[in-house]
Amino acid sequence: MAPPQKGKQATKGAKQIVEENQATLVFYRNMAMIANALSLAILVFYSSTINIVLYLFSIGVYVGSYQFMAIMARAQYSETGQLLDSGNDLNMEGGVAENIKDLIILTAGCQVLSSFISNYFWLLWLLAPVRLGWILWKNILGPYFQAAPQENPQVDDKKQKKLERKQKRFANMR
């Protein structure tokens, strides 16, 4: 293991980003497939309408999330095979892909736990909208509502002097 670095984190090369993106996509694809296989094995024996609907919904979440990450990570090559653009880094901290990966993990957890323990574990999916609301508040709504009002907008010196003269004239008229 490499010793921890002090200061700024080293940047990744384009080829390394492409390789890590492919490994990330394979990992989350395998996670989704294993969770689906386990859930389907139980669903065959103990099926109900709600379980089937939630199973199909989870498949939709997996497919949509995987496709979104695959599009984000799509690398572009020149006609000669040279790497032009490595795509977005799926392993970047604080990125959109991190939230999508969290959604896949949450879905896999809900699916497997509800298959083996109790159907009430499907309710864990309610954490996704809570997380979305938190992200919206933290990044968009919170700073908007909590921003301090601007005191005085910047005024040119000429405009400021003109305004002071008008105020003096008005004061003299009284």
Automatic annotation (TrEMBL):
Q: Which topology term describes how it sits in the membrane?
A: Multi-pass membrane protein
Q: Where is this region: Disordered?
A: 152-174
Which cellular compartments is it found in?
A: Endoplasmic reticulum membrane
Residue ranges of the TM segments: 103-128
Q: Where is the composition biased (Basic residues)?
A: 160-174
Q: Which UniProt key words apply to this protein?
A: Endoplasmic reticulum, Membrane, Transmembrane, Transmembrane helix
Q: Which domain of life is it from?
A: Eukaryota
The record's listing under InterPro entries reads: SND2/TMEM208
The Gene Ontology biological process terms listed for this entry are: vacuolar protein processing
Q: Name one Pfam family in it.
A: TMEM208_SND2
Question: For this UniProt entry, what's an example GO CC term?
Answer: endoplasmic reticulum membrane
Where the protein is mainly located, per its record?
endoplasmic reticulum
Q: Hey, which family's this protein in?
A: Belongs to the TMEM208 family.
The name of this protein is Transmembrane protein 208
Species of origin:
Ceutorhynchus assimilis
